[in-house]
């Protein structure tokens, strides 16, 4: 499990050391740095997958494209180097990179530290570390097992990609591979702790059951298209109606579908990054996805969540109060613009009843301001 992320001279952060838990909720104002935290983890994960034996941080990749070195270096510091690091239960790893050319689309690895001690890189590097260290590194394993679902999820589509089974290890950063994953792995058994009662424990039936819980009457069907490397997802919002093209069913169904698949298909030790799960969902459904994310985190699957929804937050708080997740396992970080101050988040803590010890200015308080004006 990732216990902390370390950033230096990366985007809006001069320096950041941020704790991560089984469930970490990132919230705050637009442009406050939430996405930058997620992107730092995705950059490392993407680099490991695309350049296993490379020696540079890939800034322009198939999952995340951030531009050139000038786009990711902290502009206030005017430095040409940056560092990304993580701490796990067993080790702390810090990768330092230097951009000799600010126009470059990747940044060269300069050195690596393990538990604060520089490690000689040698002739070859694997996953940005000496091969012998990389193969046993808990940090590398966690980052390689990372999945990211962006806020820009694939909307209703006639056809979705169908690849070989190994190509559907994850739902894809836009959720576009979720239907194919369900097709190939539909018979896999889901973690018993997440299984709905009176529903077969296989992935397909559990996804179907959860979708019905969020959208009563909902049903789904995945079918490969003969002669084409594609699959169709058909949905219905009422058990009395026929299966329809996703375009003719509520938009929220297609937005939630890849999140449900990702949560139920994940295995213990996986790391899931999910942006704005509340998109196109009714407030009650937003609260319920917060509860499900907390329940997932309680099974040994790490969840890092970015949200602007107080309903999602309240779902997490309810899950803690209902003893579905220990309060100590739910971390909250609020990112705000403080003129003249460094970009450092505030971190309210939660007690066993789901109550927060502080409520920073700007932290889900807009309803209070509106009511004050209306009353």
UniProtKB/TrEMBL annotation:
Secretion signal, residue range per the UniProt entry: none
SUPFAM superfamilies the UniProt entry points to: P-loop containing nucleoside triphosphate hydrolases
Gene3D superfamilies from the UniProt entry: P-loop containing nucleotide triphosphate hydrolases
Lineage: superkingdom: Bacteria
GO MF annotations, alphabetized: ATP binding; ATP hydrolysis activity
Record domain DUF3696: where: 326-374
Annotated ATPase AAA-type core domain residues: 23-314
InterPro entries: ATPase_AAA_core, Bact_Antivir_Def_Nuclease, DUF3696, P-loop_NTPase, P-loop_UCP034888
Name under which the protein is recorded: Putative ATPase putative exported protein
Organism (species): Gallionella capsiferriformans (strain ES-2) (Gallionella ferruginea capsiferriformans (strain ES-2))
């Amino acid at each position: 499990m990732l216990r902390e992320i370390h950033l230096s001279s990366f985007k809006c952060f001069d320096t950041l050391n941020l704790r991560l838990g089984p469930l970490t909720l990132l919230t705050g104002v637009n442009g406050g740095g939430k996405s930058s935290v997620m992107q730092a983890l995705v950059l490392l994960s993407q680099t490991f997958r695309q350049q296993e034996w490379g020696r540079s941080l890939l800034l322009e990749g198939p999952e995340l494209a951030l531009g050139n070195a000038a786009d990711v270096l902290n502009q206030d510091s005017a430095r040409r180097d940056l560092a990304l690091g993580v701490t796990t239960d067993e080790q702390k790893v810090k990768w330092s990179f230097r951009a000799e050319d600010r126009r470059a689309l990747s940044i060269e690895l300069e050195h690596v530290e393990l538990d604060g001690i520089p490690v000689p890189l040698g002739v070859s590097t694997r996953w940005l570390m000496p091969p012998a260290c990389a193969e046993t590194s808990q940090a590398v394993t966690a980052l390689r097992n990372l999945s990211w679902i962006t806020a820009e999820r694939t909307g209703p589509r006639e056809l979705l990609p169908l690849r070989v089974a190994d190509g559907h290890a994850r739902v894809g950063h836009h959720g576009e591979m979720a239907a194919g994953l369900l097709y190939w792995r539909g018979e896999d058994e889901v973690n018993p702790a997440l299984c709905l009662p009176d529903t077969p424990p296989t992935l397909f039936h559990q996804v179907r059951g959860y979708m019905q819980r969020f959208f009563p009457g909902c049903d789904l069907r995945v079918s490969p298209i003969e002669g084409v490397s594609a699959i169709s997802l058909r949905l219905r919002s009422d058990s009395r109606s026929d299966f329809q093209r996703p375009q003719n069913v509520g938009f929220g169904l297609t937005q939630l579908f890849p999140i449900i698949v990702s949560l139920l298909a994940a295995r213990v030790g996986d790391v899931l990054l999910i942006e704005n799960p509340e998109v196109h969902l009714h407030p009650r459904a937003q609260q319920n996805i917060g509860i499900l994310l907390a329940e997932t985190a309680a099974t040994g699957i790490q969840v890092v969540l970015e949200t602007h929804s107080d309903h999602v937050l309240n779902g997490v708080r309810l899950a803690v109060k209902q003893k579905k997740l220990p309060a100590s396992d739910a971390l909250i970080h609020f990112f705000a613009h403080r003129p003249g101050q460094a970009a450092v988040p505030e971190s309210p803590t939660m007690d066993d009843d789901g109550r927060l010890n502080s409520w920073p200015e700007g932290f889900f308080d807009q309803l209070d301001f509106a009511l004050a004006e209306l009353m």
